[in-house]
Amino acid sequence: MAVSRHAIHQITVPTPFPVGDVHMYLLTGDVLTLIDTGVKTKEAWEALNDQLKSIGYSVHDIEQVVLTHHHPDHIGLIDQLPRVKQIAAHAYIDPWLTRDQVFFEQYELFYERFFKRCGVPGDVRSSLQGYRGMLHYIGTGEVTHELTDGDILPGHDDWQVIDTKGHAQSHLSFFNEKDGTFIGGDHLLYHISPNPLLEPIDQVERAKPLLQYQTNLKKCLSLDIKSVLPGHGPVFSNISSPIAKQLKEQQERASVVYKMIQQKPRTPFEICKKLFPTQYRTQLVFTMSETVGQLDYLEAHDKLIASEENGVLVYRIKEPSE
Q: How many CB atoms lie within 10 A of CB 159?
């Protein structure tokens, strides 16, 4: 994975989350850059220091941080790197690092309003009050260099920024066209399918993350990717196989939801409860994101129609004449 004086080193640290270990990547070049910073725990900090030492570096050598997305297992140790002057990332990450309280209030209000519209009862929605409990896993800082699709990574002219929204609204990946290396965060994973999570775009609109994710999976097929360096799991090369598998599984999951609605019109929450009978209370954002993603997919393929009854969304099968 080395080209001339440029090299990539994978660093793997533990997380307290079900996904398990997370990978960071140390990128040498004009600037010594760490892509992603793990989770803010003592165990991750020790693992980062040990692995940097084993390849001849320390945290004091890192000059720049680049982030793939804003989830806690990717931005945790960002404030533990004393020489870092520049944080390059999608603009959506900044309020997470700066602890923007207005942003958090609007973020939580989005979930409260949208889930109410999806038919989620108040006692279940109350679980959202603990959403900020993950912040102690996240470092503080400020995005000093905003990245968008098509940009070149600062200090690394061979690396292009690729917009890969879906799993997160801040998600970016990085592609080296010369050698086909793709640093994919949680966008391309070999062993699991990332959950495209519901998030607001602004105060009135929401993203349709599953549709974004599928579009950006297909976009990756148009790139000459030879090796994927993922955020979790093994490095892999043949991207067409896992992408085809994920798209096929998506069709199968949507078919299950379609059959439910064939029986009778249903609210998103009614579908969520049937899909995730034991998980919806403790993992509301994850399970509702999956459910609404299926509905977005079916609606985009002209299979369903949504109407509003007493302020609650109800989905029914779209008839051929409609």
A: 24
